[in-house]
Design a protein that fits this description.
The complex is a heterodimer of chains A (727) and B (236). By secondary structure, chain A is mostly helical. Chain A is 53% helix and 6% strand. Chain A is elongated, with a radius of gyration of 60 Å. Chain B has a domain of 87 residues. Helices cover 77% and strands 0% of the residues of chain B. Chain B is built from six helices and no strands. In chain B, helix 1 packs across helix 2, helix 3 packs across helix 4 and helix 5 crosses helix 6. Chain B is extended. Classes of the chains: A mainly alpha (727), B mainly alpha (236).
Chain lengths: 727, 236
């Protein structure tokens, strides 16, 4: 009882078992193998190889190749002709040797049993056997060798140049394939050579170098082939020109002889190849190109038909042998008396079971994967799990995203960090919490207190404004105000003065009160005013200022003052204005050209102004003017009139040594002091009483509220003490 | 306020100002619709006016007019300015990044001007001034040397202690919270005192400025009532 070895574990199993008893691996594939499917066509050791009809395979060729093959077959000599020729005998000889060699070869089965009956494998083996035979006894079996092989052998053995070896060397292997039997016969063998070619060759100098044995053999073959050559030459006349094209007409002409060629064709050939008739310069004199060499040159030319053939050997066996060779092989083998057993030994045996089980049974297709998600049951049909159902295919496992493995870690958090975390969580949770608006009653303590403060301030300021007398003494004269007054006093008449209105409308009341006396002083000096602003609202505030506080001077735009408008860009824009004022402000606020007006005549840079006055409520604006403008003034005094809220940050520029600003007026007290010093009362003195009343009331309210808060604290503490004592 | 010189536009302007002032003062009663209406009007008018000023005072005279009426040099310069300006408009389109380079130029130039001015206009002169404050010969009040020295000492102390207050470097010891050096901690307390004083002065200045503005508004209301309101009542 034979045992079937498991392909996986290698242990023996009964022959009839389908599953391994040890590892449960599938011993036989579920799907029939290709060898089983092709049992009708495949060969077993007991079968005799049948004749392979190459016409069946030729039908699968493309139409172009089929047409080319048909043309070639038309040119071929019929099998009956070959039976009569000596070439047939040569073919029979090497095929018989092929069989002999195969018989003597190892009986080990071929790894592939599917393609045993294919012709290309037979040809491979035949060639291998032929090579081996030629290596073993190159001379003893010379008579048995085919004609072309003998010539190759002779070429290898004898370095002397012969016409055949020269042709074989120069002719590429592809060309041999392309021209098939005709090409090989025409180039390598002289059997089919026409008489004219033989004559030319005999006249050739190369003929003298041929060995005697080869010359004799060539002569013998020429005698045998002589009738065929005549037939070929006749056939050449019958072949249409289109059929000759793939093989080059000149080649066929030389091979078949020019005798059978019409005159017009000869002339065309001569016209087409004039160079071939000319003797090259490098060629020694007296050596004319023989027809054989012409033929070789033709063969050595590249043929596009073979460009796609990458591996010549593969291409040799890729095609089928011609029909005549196939038929001759089968028939003549039978004639040679080879038994069926001998033929069967040539054929490879069946693969063992374990090899068959390991072979891929069937290419998995998309249909094999579809039952994974469907209702049909999926059965594995290959590999060690063959035959088992409900198995996930590998492809699905690969495509499935893998979940990252969990790495345990323990976060070490201190108590302080936990406290901070809890605090952060509470803050975040409070942010998300929506606090409902508490509906306080219309009359509440806080609201009543706000009314009281508002009413006190409103009435105190209003009542004090009605009084035109002096309730409070004017402020002391400060040095920075005196410096500004001295700077203005030093101005000549019609001196150009640059005034920057850089404050917001909300503080225009304070700024107007501070600046009114200063601008009034400038107008009294007869200065030409140039107004500029780095705030969009500055130009219109300046116009409002002049129209409400300086109506008595009758300054006219374009004559005594110019409003240049707004300078965009902040610090960079201000710096640009300092460097090139005419480029930054080409037009005035009213659209006119200011640089032709009287106030700006002779002004090229900011240092041409006699005084620069900055009116601002923002300490940043004041700082920008000091930083960007003051370094370029070159002796021109920079003065400022600032709001009370900007004074603490602007004063250091005046207090520093050397001073960065020449004069400073800050807040309403500074404006009032300036008015007092100049002797021209204005808005400052008008607001002075109310200002002092408002400050006093504010201080009183702060004091009272402080006392109330202290009283509340004392009362609450007294109640707590009483509670503690009672407790 | 002289009503005799008022035209119709002036009268309307003063009347609107009077009404809006009352609406703002209504905030004393609490947040209400009247105050919000006045606030919205101020915001809208300010934005619209700023836009008009930008167009008529900046774009037209500095970009459009030179491009249309200017010479060749002015046209080339206007084109060079117009290109980044157009790219700035992409900041309000889905292709925001196309205007980044123009914005980068603006920010870079502005920052360079501001930083350069701060160094050369504030930092160096103020440092030099703090040093020179101890020079009695150059002091403004050269008559009282001790007062000048005391003043200069206070300025230097206030400057150093304020800077040290913002030094937050501390050493950490195991088992203890990070703590600054004792010397730095004590000096920073002095700096904290100067900072509190400065904030107090700033708040006082803001209050005084607001008080002055209030006085101006109250004065405006009273003048309006006295000059216009009473006369209107008398005429009726």
């Amino acid at each position: 009882m034979t045992k079937n070895h498991c392909p996986m574990c290698g242990k023996p199993n009964p022959e009839d078992s389908e599953v391994c008893q040890f590892c449960e691996a599938r011993l036989k594939p579920l799907v029939a193998s290709s060898s089983e499917e092709k049992d009708s066509s495949s060969l077993t050791p007991e079968q005799i190889p049948s004749q392979k009809d190459s016409d069946e395979q030729e039908r699968t060729l493309p139409a172009l190749l089929q047409d080319a093959r048909n043309e070639t077959s038309n040119e071929e000599v019929s099998p009956s002709t070959y039976n009569e020729s000596a070439e047939k005998g040569a073919v029979e000889d090497w095929l018989l040797k092929l069989q002999d060699n195969l018989n003597t070869e190892d009986d080990a089965p071929s790894p592939s049993t599917e393609e045993d009956d294919q012709d290309w494998l037979q040809r491979i083996r035949a060639l291998e056997a032929k090579d081996k035979a030629s290596e073993k006894s190159p001379h003893s079996k010379k008579e048995d060798l085919p004609q072309w092989l003998s010539e190759i052998e002779a070429e290898e053995k004898e370095p002397e140049v012969t016409k055949d070896s020269l042709a074989a060397d120069l002719m590429t292997k592809e060309m041999k394939i392309t021209f098939g039997e005709n090409a090989q016969e025409d180039t390598l063998g002289q059997a089919e050579m026409p008489d004219w070619l033989k004559g030319e060759i005999e006249d050739d100098a190369l003929e003298e170098k041929l060995p005697d044995w080869l010359s004799m053999m060539n002569a013998k073959e020429a005698e045998e082939k002589e009738p065929e050559a005549s037939e070929d030459s006749l056939d050449a006349d019958l072949i249409p020109k289109e059929m000759k094209a793939p093989f080059r007409e000149d080649t066929q002409e030389e091979v078949l002889g020019q005798a059978g060629m019409p005159d017009w064709l000869k002339e065309e050939i001569k016209d087409d190849a004039p160079e071939a008739e000319q003797e090259p310069e490098w060629l020694p004199s007296g050596e004319t190109e023989t027809p054989l060499e012409k033929k070789v040159n033709v063969f050595s030319q590249p043929i596009t038909m073979d460009d796609e053939m990458e591996d010549p050997e593969e291409d040799i066996f890729a095609g089928d042998l011609p029909k005549w060779l196939t038929e001759a092989t089968s028939e003549e083998l039978a004639e040679e008396g080879l038994s069926e057993d001998a033929l069967a030994e040539i054929m490879p045996s069946e693969l063992p079971g374990w090899v068959e089980a390991m072979r891929p049974v069937k290419t998995p297709s998309q249909n094999d994967l579809e039952p994974l998600g469907g209702e049909e049951e999926y059965i594995e049909n290959s590999g060690p799990l063959a035959g088992m159902s409900n198995i996930l295919p590998v492809e699905a496992a690969i495509n499935k995203a893998q979940k990252a493995s969990k790495h345990p870690f323990k976060l070490k958090v201190t108590k302080d960090q936990q406290h901070l975390i809890a605090l952060l969580e509470s803050i975040i949770s409070n942010e998300k919490r929506t606090v409902e608006k508490q509906t306080t009653p219309f009359i509440s303590t806080q609201r009543v207190l706000r009314w009281i403060v508002g009413l006190v301030l409103f009435f105190s300021i209003g009542i004090s404004s009605l009084y035109k007398g002096t309730l409070f003494s004017y402020p002391l004269h400060k040095k920075e105000i005196l410096s500004l007054i001295e700077s203005i006093q030093a101005l000549p008449k019609e001196a150009p003065v640059l005034i920057a209105f850089d404050y917001e409308p909300a503080l225009s009341g304070e700024m107007n009160a501070i600046t009114a006396s200063i601008v009034d002083h400038l107008m009294l000096q007869g200065a030409y005013l140039t107004i500029i602003s780095t705030s969009p609202t500055g130009p219109v505030l300046a116009e409002n200022f002049l129209s409400t506080t300086q109506t008595s001077h009758y300054y006219v735009h374009g004559q005594q003052y110019v409003n240049l408008g707004y300078i965009p860009g902040g610090a960079a824009g201000l710096l640009s204005f300092v460097i090139a004022p005419q480029n930054i402000t080409p037009l005035a606020f009213n659209g006119a050209d200011p640089w032709t007006m009287q106030p700006l005549r002779g002004i090229e840079s900011i240092s041409d102004f006699s005084l620069v006055l900055v009116i601002t409520d923002d300490p940043d604006n004041a700082r920008t003017w000091v930083e960007q403008v003051q370094p370029y003034l070159a002796g021109t005094p920079l003065t400022m009139a600032v709001s009370a809220q900007a004074e603490p940050l602007v004063r250091p520029y005046y207090e520093v040594t050397p001073r960065q600003i020449a004069g400073l007026v800050a807040g309403l007290p500074g404006g009032v002091s300036y008015e007092q010093l100049t002797g021209h009362g204005n808005l400052g003195q008008e607001y002075w009483n109310a200002f002092n009343i408002g400050v006093i009331v504010t201080l009183l309210m702060l004091f009272i509220s402080g006392i109330v808060n202290v009283g509340k604290i004392l009362v609450s503490k007294g109640k707590e003490n009483e509670k503690k004592e009672s407790a | 306020m002289n009503i005799a010189t008022f035209g119709l536009a002036d009268f309307v302007g003063v009347f609107v100002g009077f009404v809006l002032t009352l609406l703002v003062f209504s905030y004393v009663l609490g947040d209400n619709a009247l105050f919000r209406v006045a606030a919205h009007i101020f915001v809208g008018v300010s934005a619209g006016y700023a836009a008009i000023i930008t167009i008529y005072d900046v774009l037209l005279p500095q970009l459009i007019y030179p491009l249309v009426y200017g010479g060749s040099e002015e046209k080339y310069l206007s084109i060079a300015l117009l290109i980044p300006s157009l790219f700035l408009f992409t900041k309000v389109t889905p292709w925001k990044r196309a205007g980044d380079w123009a914005m980068a130029i603006l920010v870079g130039i502005g920052a360079a001007a501001a930083v350069g001015g701060a160094i050369t206009g504030t930092l160096f002169p103020q440092t030099l001034g703090a040093i020179n404050s101890f020079e009695t010969s150059t002091s403004p009040n050269s008559s009282n040397i001790w007062i000048n020295l005391l003043n200069a000492g206070i300025v230097v102390l206030g400057t150093i202690s304020t800077l040290i207050f913002f030094h937050f470097g501390a050493r950490s010891k195991p088992g203890h919270a990070p703590q600054r050096l004792a010397l730095i901690e004590n000096i920073s307390k002095i700096g904290q005192l100067f900072i509190a004083t400065t904030f107090g002065v700033l708040f006082a200045g803001v209050y005084l400025a607001a008080l002055t503005a209030l006085i101006e508004r109250v004065s405006f209301l009273w003048n309006f009532i006295r000059e216009i309101g009473l006369k209107l009542l008398a005429s009726i």
